[in-house]
Structures are given as C-alpha cells and as structure tokens.
Design a protein that fits this description.
By secondary structure, the chain is mostly helical. It has a domain of 31 residues. Helix content is 60%, strand content 0%.
Length: 77
C-alpha cells in the first residue's frame, strides 16, 4: 500500500516542469501558513493624545457619542 507521500510523488513526476514549479509554490504557501507567527505588540499611539480626558461614560453613551461624531463628519463632507 502506497503512502500519501508516495502517491503525491508519483503524480508530481507526471507533471510538466512548469506544473511541478506550481506544485512547489503551493507547498511553500501551505508551509508558510503552518509557521507560528510571533504575536504583535499592540500599538497604543492613540492613547493619551493631546485631547485625552478621562471620560466617565457608559458603553451606550460612548456609542451614541461615536455615532454623533460620525454623523457630524459625514455632513461636513
């Protein structure tokens, strides 16, 4: 009984060199998805900006504030 690797090898050998290169490229793509990626550090460049003020609003109040700012921005354009 043939292993999956042996079957793949037999089929790849039947392909043209151009198609073999495509298979290799696809394998490299799959391998790149397998590599663990280093976690990225979050950027807080927006935090404590010049207008940073402590805000004591509920999440609903913040949503309303964000919506009103969006509406103002859209009507200004």
């Amino acid at each position: 009984m043939l292993t999956a690797l042996q079957v793949i090898q037999e089929k790849v050998e039947k392909l043209s060199p151009q198609k073999q290169a495509e298979v290799l490229s696809f394998i490299e793509f799959l391998l790149s998805k397998e590599r663990p990626r280093a976690p990225r550090k979050l950027a807080f460049s927006w935090a404590d900006g010049p207008d940073a003020q402590p805000v004591n609003l509920s999440s609903v109040e913040l949503q309303h504030e964000a919506t009103s700012l969006r509406i103002e921005d859209e009507t200004a354009n």
